[in-house]
C-alpha cells in the first residue's frame, strides 16, 4: 500500500513541494510471488493440456494408420481367399469334366457292344435277355456315376468355399475381439 508524505508549503525561493509515494515492498513482493505462482500454474496447466492433446492426436493417428493397415490386410486376404477358391473351383470343374467324359466314353463303348450283341442274336428271347441285361447294367452305371459326381461336387463345394469360410471366420474374430474387450 502506498503511503504519502505531505510536504510543507514552499518558500518563494524554494521549489514547490510535492507528494512522493512510498510503497510497502513486502506487499509488492507477495503480489509478485502470487502472480508468478498463478502464471506458473497457468503455464503448467496449458502445457499439460497441450501434451494430452498431442498424445491423444498421436494415438488417434496411430489408430487410423492401424485401421488402414488392417483394411489393406483384409482386402489382400479377401483377394487371396477368392483366388484360392477360384483355383479350387477350376480344378474341380476339370475333374468333373474328366469324369463325365470318361463316363460318356464308357457308355458309348457299352452301347456299341450291346448293339453288336443285339444284331448277333438269333431269337427274340435272346434279344429280350440282352436288352434287359444292357438296361440293367446301364442303369447301374448311371446310378454309380451320379453318386460319384455327387460326391465329387460336394467335395468341390467344400474345398472351394474353405478359403472363403476361413477368411470370414478370421474377419469375424478380428471384429469381435475389440468389442469383447
Report on the structure:
With 181 residues, the chain is mostly helical. It is built from 2 helices and 2 strands. The protein has a two-stranded antiparallel sheet with strand order 1-2. Helix 1 (25-119) runs antiparallel to helix 2 (124-180). The longest helix is centred in the middle third of the chain and has 95 residues, at 25-119. The radius of gyration is 50 Å and the shape is rod-shaped. The protein starts with a strand and ends with a helix. The model has no long low-confidence stretch (mean pLDDT 83).
Looking at the structure, what is the overall shape?
Answer: rod-shaped
**Helix/strand order, N-terminal first:** EEHH
Bin the strand percentage. under 5%
Give the domain tally.
1
**Main sheet attributes: strand count, strand direction, barrel closure:** 2 strands, antiparallel
How many distinct helices?
Answer: 2
Write the layout of secondary structure elements.
Blueprint: E1 3-4, E2 21-22, H1 25-119, H2 124-180
Antiparallel strand pairs: 1-2
Question: Keywords for this structure?
Answer:
mainly alpha, 2 helices, 181 residues
Brief overview:
Helix content is 84%, strand content 2%. With 181 residues, it is mostly helical.
Amino acid at each position: 500500500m502506498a503511503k504519502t508524505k505531505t510536504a510543507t508549503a514552499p518558500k518563494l525561493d524554494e521549489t514547490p513541494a510535492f507528494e512522493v509515494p512510498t510503497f510497502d515492498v513486502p506487499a509488492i513482493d507477495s503480489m509478485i510471488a502470487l502472480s508468478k505462482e498463478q502464471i506458473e500454474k497457468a503455464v503448467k496447466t496449458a502445457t499439460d493440456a497441450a501434451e494430452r492433446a498431442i498424445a491423444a492426436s498421436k494415438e488417434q493417428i496411430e489408430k487410423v494408420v492401424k485401421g488402414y493397415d488392417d483394411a489393406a490386410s483384409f482386402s489382400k486376404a479377401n483377394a487371396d481367399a477368392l483366388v484360392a477358391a477360384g483355383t479350387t473351383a477350376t480344378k474341380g470343374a476339370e475333374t468333373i469334366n474328366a469324369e463325365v467324359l470318361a463316363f460318356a466314353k464308357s457308355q458309348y463303348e457299352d452301347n456299341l457292344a450291346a448293339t453288336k450283341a443285339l444284331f448277333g442274336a438269333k431269337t427274340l428271347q435272346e434279344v429280350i435277355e440282352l436288352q434287359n441285361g444292357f438296361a440293367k447294367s446301364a442303369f447301374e452305371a448311371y446310378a454309380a456315376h451320379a453318386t460319384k459326381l455327387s460326391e465329387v461336387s460336394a467335395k468341390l463345394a467344400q474345398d472351394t468355399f474353405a478359403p472363403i469360410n476361413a477368411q470370414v471366420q478370421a474377419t469375424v474374430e478380428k471384429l469381435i475381439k475389440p468389442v469383447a474387450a
